[in-house]
Design goal:
Length: 690
Amino acid sequence: LAAPLLLALLAAPAAHAQEDELEIRFRAGIHGPTEVRFTLEGLTPPGEVAAYRLTDGHGREIEIADVRIGSGSESFVVPARQLDPLGVHYLEVPSLDLRALVRRDPLFRTMYSAKPLGAVIAEDGRETSFRVFSPRAEAVRLYLYEGRDDRTEAALQTIEMTRDADGVWEAVVPGDLHGTWYDFTVHGPKDPGNWFYETHPVHVSDPYALVNDDALGRSMVWRDGPPPPPVEGGRPAMEDVVAYEVHVQDFTDLLPLPESEAGTLPGFVRGGLVNEHGEPIGFDYLVDLGVNVVHLMPVQEYLHYPDDEWQAVFAEDPFARQMAIDRENYQWGYRTTHAFAVESRFRSRDSEPGAERDQFRQLVKAFHERGISVIIDVVPNHTGENMDGRHLLLNFNVLDQPYYFRTDDDLAHIGPFGNEVKSEDRPMVRRWIIDQLRHWVEDLGVDGFRIDLAGQIDKQTLIAAREALPADLIIYGEPWIAPSDPDVRANPEWSWYKADAPITFFQDDARNAFKGSPFDVADRGWAGGNGYSRDGAMQALENAYAEEPLSTNGISYLDIHDNWALADRYATNEDYNGLLGVDMAAMRIAAGLLFTSMGPVVINGGTEMLRSKGLAPHEEFEVEVAGGPIQFKGRDDTYNLRAPNRYLWESLAPGSDQVLMRDWWRGLISLRLSEHGSVFRIADVPEGHY
């Protein structure tokens, strides 16, 4: 407790003698222009008007006409004049040193529109509509441009948008504007927590844009072609899933491709490639491996810092050159900025903006023709606007930060990843999450999703998403890291973990038993010789967990993009560098355990060919660049180090450890997906089956 509050409690009457042992929570919310409700847990609220102080966002006091202490948990403050319900207000109890933001959740939770958002071209091409949701803006302007590059170029047209009753701003422009660039300015009050044009004169892009110029540029009006055909043979049932997690750039960086295709979507599905030893590599390698699901790490448009700013710091830096990050801000992509757009840096370099959408559909088509489903990694729990300690004004931060994000009483972002979207109490945020999933299924042809940090998204939103999507979609996600808002964590309707998971979750207990905790590289698990892990490994093989009544409630794995690569954990040297040698027996045993366990499995792509992060350093450090620091986390988290994540295709040589291990994994995949392996692919496992 803060010192003033502690003194107040010590001076309180005897009736409060036990209340100082309770947590003191003071919360307030506005329900209309003359109704502020509040709760005070752990203390009896004072009954006199003079005990309270009501102010606006600029500290100006507002007279209170009455206070009504409720018989239940909720009490009322009645202001002497009408308030702006969407403005910023604070309620205080000065004698107890208590101050609470008067939250607008009671009003925000009723705001909803079903109108199409973004830029939509009419089917007959006669008009193009633009819509954006900004419930507290006082004006929104739309700017249309011919080009994307020149920040000084005058707009072809500036249009005042109109607001409907539900907070949607819209403009309808005659004609088919396919290929036209656009952005917005958003205008509103100068209250705390607001980032409107009046205090921060910036143009923002469209969060529903189908094409964006990298993360920081303008949006483009786009009309899609037809989606790719469905996967041959249909999507696998969840119990049959053998998924292969892979990053587009890592997989294609060292393939023998034209310069225009390295690191791109077309390069990913280029067939007929072999290395200098004649071994199939790239697309053919992945198809031959035998998996039935390709799990792409983020392909939604995500944050890269501008190349010129990046190169100003790193172009001549020896470490950056060694890590292959001297020319660009390489990322895994867990910093989405435009959830409906395909990552523009993944298009071939000889194509124009927008081509990435067609190229992504071609990728899906290529895998579907081989009977392989495609799922993508989505990151709807936070956005790329607040990464690395920065506060970027791209879209949601300006459109309405307190609506779109969880914030504290000072209306600042909370959360370990810069921000957390507020999916609960915000119907239009829930809609944004569901809309993006639907879009990638219906328009781009994907077969499911891995949801990043799904535990930070409220349970009801995930249930609603499941109900809104095809029943046969493959969906799994991370259950850990709860929401940072204590009210969300405390609400069983919102917060969830494994026992009440609304989606299939990563089963970390199986991972830990098979090969050891990801946070301790010296922990090698049962496969690495830890006899104490035997009971845990047996339980993991059966998926005999209380929170898994079905084997499909969890998905098992050994390693994933985060943390230590399996080859480095089982390295034969003290440096934990798999490039210098690997304990092949431990790797084989770990793979054997995974592929003979019940339920779905996911592989960290490249583990089967001993992919190592050994090029990366162990230590963490920071480098200052324009706008703030960049953190490099070392070998256990190489999210922004390019070279350590590459597939070393030339290491596949006849008789090499890489080829021997690949063949071992390929054999296990074949066994698991065969008729014989069906004994491991049962959702409702009979007692004693194992």
